[in-house]
Every structure is written in C-alpha cells, then in structure tokens.
Design goal:
2 copies of one chain form a homodimer. By secondary structure, chain A is an alpha/beta fold. Chain A has a single domain, classed as Protein tyrosine phosphatase superfamily (Protein-Tyrosine Phosphatase, Chain A, Alpha-Beta Complex). Chain A has 7 helices and 7 strands; from the N terminus they run βββαβαβαβααααβ. The first copy, chain A, has a 5-stranded mixed sheet, covered by helices on one side. In chain A, helix 4 runs antiparallel to helix 5 and helix 4 runs parallel beside helix 6. The radius of gyration of chain A is 18 Å and the shape is globular. The termini of chain A are far apart. The N terminus and C terminus of chain A are likely disordered.
C-alpha cells in the first residue's frame, strides 16, 4: 500500500520525485515564489495547479516555458524589471504596483511569482504584499532576507520600507465590488467601513 | 476607505501592525513553521486561525503561551526533542515520526510547527514531510538550509536523507479509512492502489 499527499499525485513517475524550482516557497494560500523554473521543475509546478505566473524580468520567456504554460492553461503576466546591478537600476514603484494588482486578485490564483533568482525583484514584490497585509516592517524584512540570503540588498529593504500601499486601495476596492454578491469562494479581502456608508463590513466580504 | 486582506482583519489595533514570530514561513496550505512565538506575536498568530501547535522542545511551555492557546482553543502537541549541541543529541527518529503523524492529520490543521529557533528540529520535521510529498532531496535540503541560514547542520541533512517515510504509510492509511465517505472537505490524501482491492483510487480520496 502506498499513500502520498495529493500534491504528489499524478505527476510522479514510478519511483520519481518532484524537483521544486530553486528558492521555492509558499507565500500565502494560492501564492508561491521561486527562482526561474527550468523544465525539470515542470512536474513539480503542475502539482500547484497554477492559474497564473508573474514574471518580473524584461527578457523574453523561454519557448519551452511558454509551451508548458500553454499546455497547462497558465496565464503569463510579465513585468519587465531590470535586474542590472552595475549601475544599479532603482526598483520601479509603478511596475511593482501593477504586479501587486495582479497578485492580490484572487481570480489569478494559484499564482507563482518569479524572476531569475527569486531574491530581489520577487522579494520586493512579496515585501510590498506583506505591507498590504499589515505585517510589521521587521517581519517583512526578515522574510526578504531569508529568501535573498547573503545576496540581500540594502536598497531593496529601503524600497520596501518606502513603498506606499495606499495606492493599492482603489484596486482592492474594485475587485471587491466586482465580486460582491457573486458567491466568489475565496474570502481573502475584507472591507473596513470608513467612508463608505452603503456597505457594511460583513456584507463586503467577497 | 481602507481595504486589507483577511489575515489582517480583526487583529490589527488602530494603526497597528502584525509581528510574525521569528523565522516564520508557510509550509503548505494549513501548515506553518516558525521560531518560538513571543507574546508580541499572538496577534499575528490569531490571524492564522490555528487549531494546533507542534512544539518540539522538552522544556515546559510558558504560562502566557498556554493561556493564549486556551483562549484560542488551540491544541498543543509537545514532542520533547533535545536541542543540545555539546555533545550533539541525535535527532530521535521515532519522535519525529510521531510528530509527523500529527502533522499530516488534516484534522489538526491549521497547524504551526515550532521549536526554539525554527531551524533544526522544525527543519528536520518539515524535511521529512517533504519526503512524504515526494520532493527530491536537493529541494528538501535547499528549503532546510534557507530556513537554518548559517546555522545549518550537516547531521540534520543526514537525518533527513536517511529518514524512512515508509513507516508513515500505515498512519496515512488509517486517517484515510477514518474519513472515507464522511464528506471530509480537504482532499490532501490520495490512495494509490497496490494491494488494496476493495478501494479504487478515486474512491479513496478523503
């Protein structure tokens, strides 16, 4: 008799094992992060039942990865953020905000965020998400550093600290309105009554 | 207007933030890991809606942590594994197996695993879980090392590599039988037909 967890179900060949992409972690229910997935990681990725990928590099997506996405009906959201360090390119706040909008939209989940190493660009995006989730800054930075290892960059920490999450509010609000009352299953977004008098908090759960 | 994700809902005081326990990470849907939670982390932990905690140290659980558990109806599973390094205590396979049995039982989820630093004892337990999930050894060890940082120990890697997951099969089988047909929601365990003729794979999903 052999029992295994569902994640390892159909995608393990006889005696086979699952190779996670480098620097893989689960961020939240339905949100994952990693370094660049290689073909040997496709079996593992299939177990995540991904609906989307957020790719944070400007370079074109490799042909074999595109084929994998097509075969598994995975949507690609590319946000071309330069990874050059000489001279260092500042993290573009608007682009990170655009990526964050895609990330918090549960219609895109399960979703994988990746760049090249899964450390800096991915780390900044996840750090901004944590701020939206009201994580305190030291927890946010600890998570960034754990995933960046010895390659952590002070300017990434500065970017995360300075990032203003207020600009995301309108986006979250629009998602909520779109799903309000339509029986959407995932209760990930809540509404705190402040200026809106027409919706009560419990009614605003999507 | 203010919109925040559900995890940050009721437990944020005005203008407040959530402090995750040190070395906190999500392992799987419903499984978390961290270092020892302090009272300042209780607000954060409440957002996880924990049903159980696996505590891997022999020292008694602090009174204030016990009160927090009682107030939030969280069950404590303590497995006293020595953390001494001089002389180093070998990781006890039977105890890790007992903890793993609790960990894979979805009736205990959401569950938090912690020891003191969330690096060695917790890392070994999570490593064994990954083997049950058919992760390849290099992925398992990369995750262990990412969470242990510079404190990683070769003997932990050896322990994880040598750990025999076959002994967990009977436990998983018993959980499956207990829930088979009872409409249990979480489809985390699957059954691969091998010697059991009375159950078909699809019928065996719990």
């Amino acid at each position: 008799m052999c029992l295994i967890m569902e994640a390892a179900d159909d995608h393990v060949v006889d005696g086979g094992v699952l190779a996670a992409p480098s620097n893989f972690s689960m961020v939240e229910d339905g949100i994952y992060r990693s370094g660049f997935p290689k073909p040997e990681n496709f079996g593992f990725l299939t177990t995540l039942s991904l609906r989307s990928i957020i790719y944070l590099c400007p370079e074109p997506y490799p042909e074999e990865n595109l084929k994998f996405l097509e075969a598994n009906n995975i949507k690609l959201f590319q946000f071309g953020i330069e990874g050059k360090t000489d001279p260092p390119t500042p993290m573009p706040e608007d682009t990170v905000l655009d990526a964050l909008r895609v990330l918090v939209d549960v219609r895109n989940h399960p979703i994988l965020i990746h760049c090249k190493a899964g450390k800096h660009r991915t780390g900044c995006l996840v750090g901004c998400l944590r701020k939206v989730q009201s994580w305190c800054l030291s927890s946010v930075l600890e998570e960034y550093q754990k995933n960046a290892g010895v390659k952590w960059r002070q300017r990434d920490l500065n970017f995360i600290e300075a990032f203003d999450t207020a600009s995301l509010r309108q986006c979250l609000l629009s998602i909520m309105y779109r799903y309000h009352g339509y029986g959407f299953k995932r209760k990930r977004l809540v509404h705190e009554e402040e200026n809106v008098q027409t919706l009560k908090p419990q009614a605003a759960k999507v």
